[in-house]
Amino acid sequence: MAKGKTKGQKGKRITLKTAKNSIRITFDGRRRLDLSKMGITTFPKCILKLDDVDELDLSRNMLKKIPDSIQRFQKLRWLDLHSNQLEELPEGIGMLQNLAYLNLSNNKLTAKNLPVELNLLKNLRTLNLGLNRLDNIPTTLGALKELKEVSLFDNFLTAIPTSVTKLPKLKKLNVKRNPFPDPTQEQPVDSIKRTETLYLVQEKDLCCSCLKMCQDERDKLNKLKNTIPSSSKKPNFPSLLTPNSTAKENQEQWR
Q1: CA angle 251, 253, 254 (to 5 degrees)
Q2: CATH hierarchy code of domain 18-174
């Protein structure tokens, strides 16, 4: 029994053959090494021989550490490490210059163990740090100008840096279930979504035909507002010729 328990703590050993058999081709033709849900407790060094894959999935294991050698996966565009027991990230992760998707949710990451080198991921578009132990977000993440989606839900955040909320291409920011002192801190989620269909320009930037069209539409709205009767006025039906009409209120005119 004790022997079995020890074996369980060591986790499953991944061989190079197992890893090769775990490579899948995605619908868009990329090579994904899928080692999710394998009971892995330590990073399998053998997969460094497969560093030409485009995607690496090590999610839902029991990993506590990722080695600095992760930087050898130079072609990597997609890295999923969610639902492990990671407490820190290696500095080498910043060398994955082609990385566009990084999922680190449901781990044990703290703010002090997020390496500054994360700001080197210039092509990163999606970053998921939800369900961790973050009490603040490094302002250096504001250097990731290509970010479109950022998830920070279920942490211990009390504020979100402006450098993050003002990222130029950001479309989705999830900061739900954080202990913000001011509930309005969660407003950036909605305001960013609204900007997907809201475009504001100055009149000087419009051509003559577009400017005239906008002005005509504005005039129509103004006319419509002016024609809507006030609720305080009584309705008037001048063409209604029945005794029950409002004309009954003025007997002399009715006769």
Answers
A1: 60
A2: 3.80.10.10
